[in-house]
Amino acid sequence: MKLKFLGTGTSQGVPVIGCTCEVCTSENPKDKRFRSSVMITTEESRKILIDCGPDFREQMLLNHENNVDIALLTHEHNDHVIGLDDMRPLIFKSGKNMPLYCYERVGNEVKKRFPYAFADVRYPGAPAFDLHEIENKPFRVLDTEITPIEVIHYEITVFGYKFKNLAYITDANFISDVEKEKLQNLDVLVLNCIRKFDPHPAHFILPDVIALFKELKPKKLFLTHISHHLGLHDIEDKDLPEGMHLAYDGLEVEF
C-alpha cells in the first residue's frame, strides 16, 4: 500500500496570505503546503482519500490522481471537508454516489454545508454522497481493514486512521492511553505538528511530537499539518531526531 501526502499545511496553508516571513517567501517547493489531506492506494489500486479540503481540485490535478473510491473524514472543520463539492467530476464519471465515512456528527455537518447534495430533488449538476456512520472500532471496506483512532482536538473528538502498520493522525492535541495502544511500534506514524514553540490549545507542537515519538517508538514518524511557524523545511528537517521527518506535499510513503 502507499500513502501520498496531497497537503501538509494548516487551515491557512503555506504561504499565508499577506505574510512575508522567510517560510512564506521561500522558493523551495517543500515550503509550499496545501491544506492537510492524504491519498491511500490499496494493494488492489483502490483509492481512499482522507479529508477533502479547499485545495482538493489542485491537489488531484498536480498529483495526476483521477479517481477516489471512498473518502474518510477526520472531522468537520472546513479545511477538511469544504472541498467535497469538487468531487463532482468523479461522481459524474462513475455514475455513483461518493461514499463518505465519518462520525454521525460530521455527517450532519456535511449535510448542513452541502444541503443541495442531499435534496430529495437534486439540481442536475449537484454532487451526491452516501454517508456511512462509523464508530471507534475497526471496519472493512475495499478489502482493506481500517482502524479508527479517536483523539482530541481542543474540545472535539477527531478520528485518525490506521492501515496495516501505518497510522495517520491530524488535528490533535491529546491521545488517550487506550488509543495509544493502537499506535505502538508502527512502521509509519503521521502526526500533526503546528509549530516549534508556544503550546497550542488544539494541536501538538514539536516537543509534544518528539515525546510521542520516544513513547510510541514507530520506525518512522512524519510531521504534517505544519504552519509557517515551524520553519524552513530543509533546515528543520535536518534538526529532527533520527527517524523523524517533515512531510511535504507530494511525498509518497510505502507501507
Layout of helices and strands:
Blueprint (H helix, E strand, L loop, with lengths): L1 E6 L29 E5 L5 E4 L5 H7 L7 E3 L5 H4 L6 H7 L3 E5 L1 H10 L15 E5 L5 E3 L2 E10 L2 E8 L2 E3 L8 H4 L7 E5 L13 H11 L3 E5 L8 H7 L4 E3 L5 E3 L1
Parallel strand pairs: 3-4, 4-5, 5-6, 10-11, 11-12, 12-13
Antiparallel strand pairs: 1-2, 1-14, 2-3, 7-8, 8-9, 9-10
Commentary on this structure:
This protein is α/β, with parallel strands linked by helices and about 260 residues long. It contains seven helices and 14 strands. The strands form two sheets. Strands 6-5-4-3-2-1-14 form a seven-stranded mixed beta sheet. It has a seven-stranded mixed beta sheet with strand order 7-8-9-10-11-12-13. The model has no long low-confidence stretch (mean pLDDT about 100). This is MBL fold metallo-hydrolase. InterPro entries: Metallo-B-lactamas, RibonucZ/Hydroxyglut_hydro. It comes from Chryseobacterium herbae.
Kindly summarize this structure in a few lines.
The chain has seven helices and 14 strands.
Helical stretch tally:
7
Total beta strand runs: 14
Q: For the residues shown, what is the average pLDDT?
A: 98
Strand content: 25-35%
Separation of the first and last Cα atoms: 6 Å
| Largest sheet strand order | 6-5-4-3-2-1-14
Order of helices and strands: EEEHEHHEHEEEEEHEHEHEE
The multimeric state of the shown protein is single chain
Major sheet attributes: 7 strands, mixed
Helix content: 10-25%
Bulk shape:
globular
Structure class: alpha/beta
Query: Spans of 5+ residues with little confidence (pLDDT < 50)?
Result: none
Q: Taking Cα atoms only, what radius of gyration do you get, to the nearest Å?
A: 18 Å
Pfam families: Lactamase_B_2
Domain Metallo-beta-lactamase: 46-226
Protein name: MBL fold metallo-hydrolase
InterPro entries: Metallo-B-lactamas, RibonucZ/Hydroxyglut_hydro
